Amino acid sequence: MKKIGVLVLTLIMAFGALGIGYAMWYDTIHIDVSVNTAEVKLCIPENSWSTTDDNAYVVHSDYQALGTVCSPSPKIGPITLVPSGKDVANIDVALDGCDTMVVTINNAYPYYYNHVGFKVTNEGTIPVKIWKMVLTAGGNEYTYYTDITDIIRCLEMGEGSIVGPDLLVWYGDNFGDQIEPGDSRDFSFEVVVLQPAPQSATMEFSITIYGVQWNEYQKGPIAGY
Fold this sequence. Notes:
By secondary structure, this protein is mainly beta. It has two helices and 14 strands, in the order αβββαβββββββββββ.
């Protein structure tokens, strides 16, 4: 009888041990973790731009050969300006979203010139470097990177133009500049209407600014972007 009691007690203890092992094996620990990722966001503030007085200047005759010899990446010196004495053309600037500026030239004529200055603000949460700028004109896209020979572009406006480029856009070399969250940078570009431009036309192109987080920046294309 004592042997049976000892056996039963042994079994109870064994099952008890198994029960403890079972409970421990299937115990669960819950850990709640919140991850806040950084945001890269460059914006052109509303009404942050300014232009040269309309019709104030045209490019000097020394540069008028651009109408026929402008290549994909022309190299020219500082543009010399002379008073235009005209009162017909004007330039309008507007935003399309946060990071795209739309530039419209009304009643353009050959060698009409304007300078557009504007601001770019880092509205994200991490330092950002200016990576590239994309111009869209006449259904074509033109991408600017940091190379100094790449910041001058001759644009084809498409239908109605004579064979050859219609506009020259010369952009300041701000690529690689770092902008801290909440800070702004001043940017600018110059535009010259070239000889092959269509008559009686409204010429429009857009500029989109792209930035990357400060430690991802490199000159030229970046894998994954």
